[in-house]
Amino acid sequence: MASFLDRERSIAGPGFNRWLIPPAALAIHLCIGQAYATSVYKNGLVKNFDTGNTQIGIVFSIAIVMLGLSAAVAGTWVERVGPRKSMFTAACFWSVGFLVGALGIATKQLWLLYLGYGFIGGIGLGIGYISPVSTLIKWFPDRPGMATGLAIMGFGGGALIASPLSQQLMSWYDPDYNPSVASSVPSGSAVAMLFVSLGIIYFIVMMYGVFNIKVPPEGWRPEGFDPAALKARPLVTTNNVSAGNAIKTAQFYFLWLVLFCNVTAGIGILEQASPMIQDFFRSDGGVSSVTVAAAGGFVGILSLANMGGRFIWSSTSDYIGRKPMYMIYLGVGILAYLGLATIGHNATWLFVLLAMLIISFYGGGFSTVPAYLRDLFGTFQVGAIHGRLLTAWSAAGIAGPLIINGFLDAKGTPGKLTVDAYRPALYTMIAILAVGFIANLLIRPVASRYWEKTGADVPEGTTPTERETV
Amino acid sequence: MTMQVRLVLGWALVGIPLLYGLWETIAKAKNLF
Lengths: 470, 33
Fold this sequence. Notes:
CATH class of the largest domain in chain A: Mainly Alpha
Number of strands of chain B: 0
Order of helices and strands of chain A: HHHHHHHHHHHHHHHHHH
CATH topology of the largest domain in chain A: Growth Hormone, Chain: A
CATH architecture of the largest domain in chain A: Up-down Bundle
Oligomer: heterodimer
Shape of chain B: rod-shaped
Distance between the termini of chain B: 47 Å
Structural class of chain B: mainly alpha
Number of strands of chain A: 0
Number of helices of chain A: 18
Largest sheet of chain B: none
């Protein structure tokens, strides 16, 4: 079994169709995307542990922090051992995380839930997120944005699947639970059974990815693809920079800032989506013209925008370039936020349209970044560099909610807020996006002193020979 | 198993659940209008 997981055993033979790689990558991302569907059982956990929303929310925070940390720490290992072994490892961590979490729920020990879903599952999230990215870029050198967009779209799509699936499963395990009634809460045993079920289902689906992922043979390139054509594009290199050297460059930190700002701004909306649309259309009497069910529909529309943006914008970046794409994410994002703050409360359709645009840019920012890294640092250790960059996601996951909740807490109590309460937070998001816009403008090609000696033909999995930097 | 069959099975494995998720989300999103 161990040898089957080795990189050498996963090299594609003649006649292999590269379009088998996206479903293998999607099998991983669709499963780990469940992390964004925790709200469906959150009330059940609050009731089971007889605690507050904050204590339960910590589970998700631990998972996202572990995602960033494990992706950063394990990135080089993932590059070395290849996608098959890393995807298998991710499946084990992700599934064991659910099973340990289920034990915590069944025995009402919250620390076990933190350890299981948060810590162990979070490691699975991080390794799983980066494991197919580098392989996809190598299989699709002609369309890296489209390829990574397809896989990372799966992370958004995973929540779309997990949310109704979880509700269905919990209604089977707890006949008193009715997902269509907002006040209905699943029992602790139903949530524990759900965790066991998801742990098993996800392991099986992720195994499809493990068994079908292949790396291209040395020197492989798609028919009709000329690597020399890449050189003609601005900011695209055919040289390689190791992960160790990448973090010595200013480009890495500018891109870290770009991702951090884009994610922070997106989370500002995602975090508050349901109450926000109700508060924006609340009359002076305190009654909102947007019902709870309609607000739930708004959350659904944002999920679609998040998923669609990951594929559409990332694919678009293959044609217009990565830097201009981020100028659109951040520049048009500023205009969209300004529109929300000034005229967004005038019509529901306008509010929804602007929010959709912002969230599609949020998703697009995630899926375009691996291709941006490929352009700047080459394919050699792009997965490891991507892993290190994902610490920006963890940081934004803390900063975004802190900013929006900090402003809203100072303005009044939930359920009584109006559009005025949101304006300071929205203007802060505009400032954050402006910082990201400037950081993106400052990105230039990486200096030749950071390039690997052997140029574009560095064998995969070899130890990087880090050059002395001046 | 031929490459064509593997392609169809692979895309079906990820495509069918994704369509289910999309369908459910669109049904929920209709509440907004």
